[in-house]
Amino acid sequence: MKQNNNDPLSHNLADHFSELLKFRSTSAMENSGLYKILKPQIDRILQTIELNKNLSAASIPCHDFIRATAWNIERGNQFEGLLNTLSSHPDIKESDVLLLTELDHGMIRSQNRHVPRELADALHMNFAFASSYINLEKGSGMEIETVGENRESLHGNAIFSPHPLKDPFLVRLVNGKDKMKGKEKRLGSQAAVGATVMHPSGSFRAVSIHLDAHSTQKHRARQMKMILDHIEKMSPQLPVLLGGDWNTTTYNSSNAFSTIMGYWKRVFMGVRNVIQNHLPYPDRYFEKELFELLERRGYSYKNLNVPGGCTLHYDVENLAANKGLADWVPFWCFWFINWALARNEGRCSLKLDWFAGKMLEPHDERPCRIAYEVHDRKNPLSDHDPIILDFRLK
Questions:
Q1: Cβ distance 357 to 242 under 8 Å?
Q2: Residue of 264, 51, 9 lying closest to 153 (CA atoms)
Q3: Digits of tens for pLDDT over the chain (394 positions)?
Q4: Torsion angle in degrees (nearest 10) through CA of 240, 244, 249, 250
Q5: CA-based torsion, 243, 249, 250, 254: positive or negative
Q6: Does the N-terminal or the C-terminal CB of the chain have fewer CB atoms within 10 Å?
Q7: 3-state DSSP assignment of residue 295
Q8: 197 C-beta neighbours (distance < 10 Å), count
Q9: Where do runs of H (alpha helix) occur along the chain?
Q10: Roughly how many angstroms between the first and final C-alpha of the chain, as a whole number?
Q11: Are strands 66-75 and 97-105 parallel, antiparallel or unpaired?
Q12: DSSP code string of 117-141
């Protein structure tokens, strides 16, 4: 693939993907002669923030508060439906900042779109996008069956705003597992991306965060600490809004064995008890370390989220979700999962998406809400529901 001089994330690494796929670990790859040749180009892609800052705030209504929406848009696969929701939903369309996670750039599973740029152009917003991964394959689960080839093969996170964005930054996080092992081989790691939003009522930093799913609870807390450490070193000190998919599944899913043991632990705790009292409230016990860290560092979260409001819903009849799980959970485990969920009509919901903030407070009359209504469960726009928050700067 030839480089596109108009795209700061363009590259010609795809010519070498077939060779890179032969490595069975990141260390083996990094010790190779091929990697040493490609490393400057790989580093450039993984350290670049694509920023569009040519637009003003003139097109959005002026409120006496700031509105944020956080949403994992699952690659941007349902692009037209996502765009329609972002531009027409009565609450979301008036957002001052969008913290979006899981955006593709040049992946065949999302029609090789540059999802962040196309969304920004259509919504007339500024954006900052950082690639988390250079994907060596088409994806995971059913995505590997997609017909066609990737173009740029990038996947990452972004922040959007109708207001000017300045001082963009990214925080590259440590991996929870070796991304060159397993069925989906990738270069890179999750990257939180942030910027200063120049809102008429005052400037604040907003950060779009996607923590690792296939990791331990302790590892997710470690990733959050890396983000907080980075922000604390920034100057000047400003109000901060964190938002995104933190993958607070309550599980240690770093490997199949840990996941299976986790399922058995929850059986002993009582399946219904876990579904009702822990999956919607991961901060109570299983993911407590992450949320205690936030509070110790001066961030509030309890008043910025819907108590017990879940944002991802698992159904045993969902073939796509099952096939994705099969990449890291042995197939025989599905019998156990189905058996456990049979007591809850084959369904359970998890609270994965969150806001947290420092030097800001929620709107008194407009609590955080979850936009469950944006899609039909039979044909969802994403596997996550968007969360919306109105707040003021202190």
A1: yes
A2: 9
A3: 556 667 899 999 999 999 999 999 999 999 999 999 999 999 999 999 999 876 554 466 678 899 999 999 999 999 999 999 999 999 999 999 999 999 999 999 999 999 999 999 999 999 999 999 999 999 987 888 899 999 999 999 999 999 999 999 999 999 999 999 988 899 999 999 999 999 999 999 999 999 998 899 999 999 999 999 999 999 999 999 999 999 999 988 877 778 778 877 887 888 888 889 999 999 999 999 999 999 999 999 999 999 999 999 887 666 455 555 555 455 556 666 666 667 666 678 899 999 999 999 999 888 899 999 998 767 789 999 999 999 999 8
A4: 0
A5: negative
A6: C
A7: helix
A8: 26
A9: 17-20, 26-30, 33-47, 79-88, 115-123, 217-232, 256-269, 271-277, 288-296, 319-325, 333-341
A10: 49
A11: parallel
A12: HHHHHHHT-EEEEEEEEEESSS-SG
Sort strands 66-75 and 387-393 into parallel, antiparallel or unpaired.
antiparallel
Structure-block tokens of residue 315 = 């159904």
Side chain identity at 140, as an amino acid letter? S
At 317, list the tokens.
């009849």
The count of other CB atoms within 10 Å of the CB of residue 64 is: 8
Angle at 303 between CA 298 and CA 309, to 5 degrees: 125
Tell me the residue length of the chain. Answer: 394
Closest C-alpha among 243, 283, 174 to residue 387: 243
- Token pair belonging to 81: 């439906």
Where are any strands of DSSP class E within 45-121? 49-52, 66-75, 97-105
- The DSSP bridge partners found for residue 206 are 195, 241
Amino acid letter, 259: T
The Cα–Cα gap between 218 and 215 comes to 8
Q: Considering only CA atoms, which of 392, 261, 249, 386 is closest in space to residue 329?
A: 261
